[in-house]
From TrEMBL:
The name this protein goes by in its record: Acetoin utilization protein AcuC
InterPro entries reported for this sequence: AcuC (IPR003085), HDACs (IPR000286), His_deacetylse_dom (IPR023801), His_deacetylse_dom_sf (IPR037138), Ureohydrolase_dom_sf (IPR023696)
UniProt keyword list: Acetoin catabolism
Species annotation: Pseudonocardia aurantiaca
Domain Histone deacetylase: residue ranges: 22-315
Similarity field: Belongs to the histone deacetylase family.
Pathway(s) per entry: Ketone degradation; acetoin degradation
Pfam families per the UniProt record, alphabetical: Hist_deacetyl (PF00850)
Length: 389
């Protein structure tokens, strides 16, 4: 384990609960921490316990009227607007407190890095990347990613790279920094013609002084491990390296998995493990080793999320889990009591995650890559048609 890596966790994160039938079930967090503990990933690690973010910190991103609406919502049965009380964003008791706690978790991770106590930090409860300044969106009430980035910008950092690997476009974070040249936002997601929120086109490239600092790779439905990794390595390392960030912030949603019920990409748990290792390498090579990782989407509650995010925690801690490691019997028994699904037996799905480095080709992934490269690479002094860039 890296002596300078931190895990942010409290069981109180489970209070961010949108209801029994809602896809964003906090059981995925509980099962992840149980699995990481059962495998010894967290042995000797004392998780950092966050406090709810104060209003003034949440208001880095969100307008005061929206905070007031979130606080009032549980006592307003007919709704308060601002995207609250919808099917995606139902109102629940303690909504403000639970959402502020998630923000507090990502703020604590940012502070650990900024104040030199850690080089890496992970908050799997974070990654609520769709929340907008004045409304909830896509299961997200407060945008902890944007709040943490804003805090970092005021505490010694002036070049931050944000990489979002969720299946859905990282629209809320992009919107927060769309005119801020200090933040490079990169989102790899399923094509907006085929998936909510319908944004994240390559032409969305930033505005004013920030032109070129919003990057979107729109992947065709069905893209699997090798295609996804091919696209990532064809776009992300070159742009991040050219941007020269002081810290890498990532949203590590795992709804890209082939079994995820809300989207249509085809990645595996093995692909997720490869992504986290690539992000760790990127932080080491381009951001001085500074890496703040958050969770995000992921609705394969029992078979997918716990394994994938255990790999994430292990990667942050430099305690990589061998893919064929058996799942602990106690974890399997506990999880079996919660679901009738057939459970996996190992930390792998036996998938080959090798990929061919990008060259200008004719398949759908290469077309997406080339569209993004031709839009963004010249703005960073890179050649979009040269595979070496």
């Amino acid at each position: 384990m890296s002596p300078r890596a931190a895990v942010v966790w409290t069981p109180d994160f489970l209070g961010y609960d949108l209801g029994d039938d809602h896809p964003l079930d906090p059981v995925r967090l509980d099962l992840t921490m149980r699995l990481a503990t059962g495998l010894g990933v967290l042995e000797g690690v004392e998780p950092l316990v966050p406090k709810p973010a104060p209003d003034e910190e949440v208001q880095r991103v969100h307008v005061p009227a929206y905070l007031a609406a979130v606080k009032a919502a549980p006592d307003m049965p007919f709704g308060v607007g601002h995207g609250l009380g919808t099917e995606d964003n139902p109102i629940f008791a303690g909504m403000h407190e639970a959402s502020a706690l998630v923000c507090g978790g990502s703020l604590l991770a940012a502070k650990e890095i900024a104040e030199g106590r850690a080089d890496r930090a992970v908050n799997i409860a974070g990654g609520l990347h769709h929340a907008m300044p004045d409304h909830a969106s896509g299961f997200c009430v407060y945008n902890d990613c944007a709040v943490a980035i804003s805090w970092l910008l005021d505490h010694g950092f002036d070049r931050i790279a944000y990489v979002d690997v969720d299946v859905h476009h990282g629209d809320g974070v992009q919107a927060a920094f769309y005119r801020d040249p200090r933040v490079l936002t990169i989102s790899l997601h399923q094509h907006p013609m085929t998936l909510w929120p319908g944004t994240g086109w390559p032409a969305e490239a930033g505005e004013g002084p920030a032109i070129g600092t919003a990057v979107n790779v729109a992947l065709p439905p069905g893209t699997g491990d090798s295609g996804w990794l091919r696209a990532f390595h064809a776009v992300v390392p070159s742009l991040v390296t050219a941007f020269r960030p002081q810290v890498l912030v990532t949203q590590c949603g795992v709804d890209t998995h082939a079994e995820d019920p809300l989207a249509n990409l085809g990645l595996s748990v093995d692909g997720h493990r490869a992504i986290y290792r690539a992000l760790r390498d990127l932080a080491e090579q381009a951001a001085g080793g500074k890496w703040l990782a958050t969770g995000g989407g992921g609705y394969g509650l029992f078979r997918v999320v716990p394994r994938s995010w255990t790999h994430l925690i292990a990667t942050v801690l430099d305690r990589d889990v061998e893919p064929h490691r058996p799942l602990p019997a106690g974890w399997v028994a506990h999880t079996a009591s919660l679901t009738g699904q057939r459970l996996p037996s190992e930390m792998t799905e036996g998938r080959d995650t090798s990929y061919e480095p990008w060259t200008e080709g004719a398949d759908r992934v290469d077309t997406a890559v080339l569209e993004t490269r031709r839009m963004l690479f010249p703005l960073h002094g890179l050649d979009p048609d040269d595979p070496r860039d």
